[in-house]
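Protocol step 4 of 5: obtain the predicted structure for the target chain.
Materials: sequence only (see below). No template structures provided, no constraints applied. The aim of this step is simply to have a reference model before the mutagenesis design in step 5. Sequence pasted as it appears in the construct record:
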Amino acid sequence: MSFTADRLLLFGATGDLAQRMLLPSLCALHADKLVPDDLEIVGTARQPFDDAGYRNFAREALEKFMPPERRGSMATFLNRLTYQPLDANDIAGYAALAEKVGQPSQGLAIFLSTAPNLFEPTIAGLTAGGLAGSTTRIGLEKPLGTSLETSREINDAVARAFPEDRTFRIDHYLGKETVQNLLALRFANIMFEPLWNAAHIDHVQITVAETVGLEGRVGFYDGAGALRDMVQNHMLQLLALVAMEPPANFNATAIRDEKVKVLRTLRQVTPDETVTGQYRAGAIGGQPVPGYDEELGKDSDTETFVAIKAHLDNWRWKGVPFYLRTGKRLPERRTEIVVQFRNVPHSIFAGKGAQTVPNQLLISLQPHEDIRLSLMAKVPGLDRDGIRLRSVPLDIAMDDAFAGPTKRIAYERLLLDLIEGDQTLFVRRDEVEAQWEWIDGIRASWAGNGVTPKNYTAGSWGPSAAIALTERGGVTWHE
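Step 4 output (structure tokens):
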């Protein structure tokens, strides 16, 4: 059923995500008149706020995390907010929550940002309180399980109350402008798609590098590790968008169908195709930082770095390696996709002493959103001693190319799509399960072969074995 919600219920309304992302995003959408005038926002969490107390809490969060130039409508936005305390495990409390939400005239959208162990009792409470009817849709923030088995348990619990067409699984990377621009780059430009295959592309690299350590996520991260925290969701979604076949049209079903096909062609990796690491004390930006075990306060075998050489067993990508790399306490914060094309089959300039370098497409997601294509060009001169060629970049800096439109954070788009009911940028259940099946296979391989993380110094690019992983194939990580 298609409807625009006029009630939004935020679980975890006092958490870090709500303060940093959700409240600023909703305030920005309000300021630009993109949400319905009658939209009411109800927050819920354990903290015993009343409406006024929560509005004061939200005001402090907005003043801390929202740019000053975008706070002009903060006062009227705060009037949209109400609050109901709730222990998610107490099913009796959902009746008062339902009373607070009231009866929407159009429909209810729920954003669920809670610990995974609270999903089942929350769904049961929503059902008991009459908040899971046919005009309610639910958005689920990760993590959705720690394995294929636990993911299925969570999804089964959700499916008992919310069918797939009313379930919105969130991967905030899909809300980033540059991620969506990847689709435009591939499918709105005639020059790329004919070359987007194994005949013309040598390899693909996807890097998600972080400079931070645990940053208050001790309990969650040590139980997850880099593979489950970053590769299972964000990085496999990026891989799927790079590798998918052209969808018939731009809608949720067509795009997600093609992503699932890619994820199901992932070949199970062998032990020599993965590298794991854990950072030790070092320096980031010239400042000393402790090692993982020091931050954690105990010894641990949890990986804070992982590099993978992945393969897709399909016609388009047969023989093209996809190198995935992510880690904490790396030298810089960076998320990027590198598409390395093959060299020209024959250089007419070789006899003149010139060397050609393969073209490269660099798609940067953070900290800056840019697209750079390197091309070969002749160096000016009379060429008396031979022709000189050089790789030169064609840059598309998103901030420069689109100076007019407001730059929005990912959650603005995703919250608006949740309110309006557009599932295109959300993850379907079969996608999640295909991702977990591949990840579980890697973890089983590590366990079966006794793989433990190698040490690397904070501020470096991970264990030296990660360099060897690419160099065996004649490839160098883009740094």
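Step 4 remarks: The chain has a mean pLDDT of 91. The chain is about 35% helix and 20% strand.
Proceed to step 5.
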